[in-house]
Amino acid sequence: MPIALAVAIVAATGLRAGEPAPLLAYGARIAGDDARTRVVIEFDRKPDFSIHYVANPVRVIVDLPETSFGLKPESLEARGLFDAIRYGGMGAGASRIVLSAKGPTEVTHAEVKPEEDGKGFRLVLDAERVDRARFEKLLGDQQWTGTVRAVKTDRPAITPPKTAGAFVIAVDAGHGGIDTGAIGSVTRTEEKHVTLAFAKDLVAMLNREPGIEAFLTRDRDEFLSLPQRVQIARQRSANLFISVHADTLKQKDIRGATVYTISDKASDSLAADLAARENLSDEIAGIPLESEPAEVADILIDLARRETQAFSVNLARSVVSSFEGQIRLINNPHRHAGFRVLQAPDVPSILLELGFLSNKDDEKQLLDPEWRKKVSGLLAIAVERYRQTAVANGG
Q: What domains sit in the chain, N to C, each tagged with a CATH number?
């Protein structure tokens, strides 16, 4: 990709006041076989980087300062030792490249070289297949907890509700940053952009209701781990948590909205498969599952926490009731499975599947601002109905 075009991509993203311009990755190439593979990435400035390893499955993690990736998708198409390559923002001014390997792999050589024309730098990574013992030693020696580098972030401090007694709602736009989510079958639109656009509409709609204060867990294209999303809701003393998604299915004829609540046993195979995919969000970003707090890891054992679960089910039923006859719903629109993002033990939570990007009709609606506003309005009605019932019952 020409540097001028890549610079335009960065400019289009916009920067907040005082933010330094991110690094620009404007070119890449990969070559090799199942024994050795070389990855080369071209930057406009000299990049700082660090390399880590994650097991089960094997991944090589390359952490970078905040970077805009103006790359052609085919330039880093997986090959050789790697069967998947993802890159993107990790929030907190950091970015990451995740190289998913076919087996134990080591980066045996890594260096930054100036381009011959003096107009940039290239990061060169040489990876080799190694045996399990060598890979286990790499894991043991790295002393890495799975977090991104410690960098300054402009995320605002947690604040209490502006109005005492306000009913606080966390609206969580699914995916973000390095985790793109599903991809539209026609437009190739990424789910993370669809969910954020809807979440912003929903927050605006909810904040029109007296006594309600709604906020976004993320307000831009950044990565948040699943435990982080739960933690943000709890720190803001949220009374409700609504996570917004738009998945894809192999069956392209299936369409319509679905509302999910948490359960240790899935209601059906579709719910189980969706939960399994959504729960991979942190793995996609290169975060080891063992790095999450124990209280989060075993939360499905004690589901609430039963009172919270009952409130979640009541909210789901209110949403389905509000949607019926107004927007298309999937068959059996209230389903349940073990979604990690719905794990707050004290916050009633639902995951709203707006529709399926794999269906061309759903995809068209998901990209329609007027449709999003209609659905946001119906959801606000459902939330207000739920709020009135919960307040009356002392919830």
A: 3-141 (2.60.40.3500), 167-392 (3.40.630.40)
